[in-house]
Design goal:
By secondary structure, the protein is α+β, with helices and mostly antiparallel strands. Helices cover 27% and strands 21% of the residues. It contains five helices and 15 strands. It starts with 36 loop residues before the first helix and ends in a 6-residue tail after the last strand. One cobalt (II) ion binds next to loops.
């Protein structure tokens, strides 16, 4: 029986879709089988699937991120200044042989994002003092042995009021529901739809300008992972994809503005905003968090 490779002329377009001649591309490189998923996802989308050694390394970075968030949580109390959180995150990261990814990233001046109340994300640690009843998101990204893990949580400062409780509960549930859509065969749109449909049914809104992202080899890889969308749309999820889900949920309207510091994103209407983020691996049967915590 003739093998399939022999059916393609040497000068014909390569069946892999590269646009090059077969002889300059895949001829002799394989047995004519369809290219594997890693090749296909790289070529079609630029997505770099992770192998088991990569996944183990991202999970080690993830453990450090979670330990860091635990340290932060034990420090948080009324009277704390947001720059104190930066100091802790910076020193703990360095002392564990890692690098804080935010520092000098596109000009970001600190080692962690700290976002209080109406701040949606990318708050720059500084002299703001935490008050009883505030909510504060702390977003930690560590580079360990060259691998990135990215996670955040929103904490209560002292005793939260009903609005603070509501938005933190809903933001956490949005991440949980987004993760529940992660399995091979589902799409990025399924994740977004799960999040958006729940948030809006609760009378809250989903921020559009910031999205989840591929992560692991770099801070922000493709694909983008919107927290809104329609079922069945977008890229199909396949094992080895690693990306964040990090819905930013507003108690009021979805619109935002960025302050003069060029980073701090706040709700236009001044309403509370909360966020939870984990770094997620697509497995053969579903998903596994590489920065796991209870939601
Ligand atoms: N950690 C954020 C994210 O989840 C990105 C922060 S970029 C920074 O993608 F420069 F502000 F740190
Ligand atoms: Co992220
Ligand atoms: Co983050």
């Amino acid at each position: 029986m003739k093998t399939s490779t022999e059916k393609v002329g040497r000068n014909a377009p390569c069946p892999c879709g590269s646009g090059r001649k077969y002889k300059k591309c895949c001829l002799g490189k394989n047995n004519g089988d369809p290219p594997d998923l890693a090749e296909t996802y790289l070529r079609k989308y630029g997505i770099r699937l992770k192998k088991s050694n990569d996944i183990e390394a991202i999970a080690r970075a993830g453990r450090l991120v979670l330990d860091t968030l635990d340290r932060v949580e034990s420090l948080i109390a009324p009277g704390l200044v947001t720059d104190d959180i930066n100091t802790l995150v910076h020193e703990y990261t360095i002392n564990n042989g890692a690098v804080p990814a935010p520092l000098n990233y596109r000009g970001f001046p600190k080692s962690v994002c700290v976002s209080v109340n109406e701040v949606i994300c990318h708050g720059i640690p500084g002299n703001r003092t935490l008050s009883d009843g505030d909510i504060v998101n702390v977003d930690v990204t560590s580079i360990l042995d060259g691998y990135y893990a990215d996670a955040n949580k929103t904490f209560f400062v002292g005793n939260p009021g009903p609005d603070a409780r509501k938005i933190v509960r809903i933001a956490g549930e949005c991440l949980r529901r987004g993760m529940s859509a992660v399995k091979p065969g589902n799409t990025l749109g399924d994740i977004g739809w799960n999040i958006q449909s729940y948030a809006e049914a609760q009378g809250c809104s989903v921020v559009r300008e910031f999205v989840g992202h591929g992560v692991g080899f770099d801070f922000h890889e493709v694909p983008q992972v919107p927290h809104f969308g329609r079922q069945g749309t977008g890229i199909a999820l396949v094992p080895g994809m690693v990306f964040t889900i990090e819905p930013m949920i507003n108690l009021g309207q979805k619109e935002l503005k960025v302050l003069d510091d060029q980073w701090t994103a706040v709700t236009r209407d001044g309403s509370l905003s909360a966020q939870f983020e984990q770094t997620i691996l697509v497995t053969e049967t579903g998903c596994q968090s590489l920065t796991p915590y209870d939601l």
